[in-house]
Amino acid sequence: MRLNPFNTGDIKVRRGGGGGGFPGGGGGKVGCGTLVIALIGALVFGIDPTQTIGMLEGSGSPTTQSAPAGSSESAAEICDDNQYAMEGCNALASLNRTWQPIFQRAGVQFTQPTLVYYQGGTRSGCGSASSAMGPFYCPADQGIYIDVSFFDQMARQMGAGGDFARYYVMAHEYGHHIQTITGVSGMIRNAQMQDRANANQYQVRLELMADCYAGVWAGANRNLLEPGDMEEGLRAASAIGDDTLMRNAGRRVDAESFTHGTSQQRMQALRLGMQSGGDDTVCDRYVS
């Protein structure tokens, strides 16, 4: 995908810190129809939603523009660390440029998420995190957290390499940001607490919606897609389906334990968004 270089004024990016010692420490319509549920602490891998119920949800937007307090690093320096970091910053800028006008047209306030790069472990507004969790979104600080070593793992162990596969992961987590700033993320927390037996089902629907949102971003920027991009994205979506992950781990496929949807469902959601031409309302079906 031929993304334009980011502008340092267009993104919020910083380094994660405080990871040492892990795991011990520490109104309007924007294509959401009549949303009644949303995801809290969504992860690329299947984490049981009962583990995320206790995460604190924040309503404010991040105040860090480029790096944590006391750091002399600029956004450009952080993004220039390696190829994956630069790709993530370019994707973040593109995602911001795609989604902000949608909110503006709907008359809804838009806030950008912060991209946080960390290594090994870090502390987020949702608590401690490790690279074993995979990329995730924290609604408490509106941060997208990524240990870029995950992308090597995704390519080597899952057969899901390629730049668009990595962009898909970024766009999926960004989709959770959209779900949060539409004002519905608190509803899933309440729904899961009140109906723990169906907590996984709530999460699956929101994960699929985030996959669809990732496709909407790609569909809105179809002119930047290159041959093979769609295949890379679908291959990545298939690789992280709950049923595929369970089989690859030698586990029995248990639909009751699904948290993100099957490979087929995830590919279908991504494809739906990509074919929408940038129309985010097609994703409403997952939560309406």
Automatic annotation (TrEMBL):
Regarding the membrane, this protein is recorded as: Single-pass membrane protein
Tell me the InterPro entries matching this sequence. Answer: Uncharacterised_pept_Zn_put (IPR007343)
> GO CC annotation: what is one?
membrane
Q: Please name the Pfam families in this protein's record.
A: Zn_peptidase
Q: Which organism is it from?
A: Paraurantiacibacter namhicola
- Primary place of residence? membrane
* Keywords, alphabetical: Membrane, Transmembrane, Transmembrane helix
Where found, per UniProt? Membrane
Source taxonomy: Bacteria, Pseudomonadati, Pseudomonadota, Alphaproteobacteria, Sphingomonadales
What is the protein name stated in its UniProt record? Putative neutral zinc metallopeptidase
User: Do you know which PANTHER family this protein is assigned to?
Assistant: INNER MEMBRANE PROTEIN (PTHR30168:SF0), PUTATIVE MEMBRANE PROTEIN YPFJ (PTHR30168)
Origin: domain of life: Bacteria
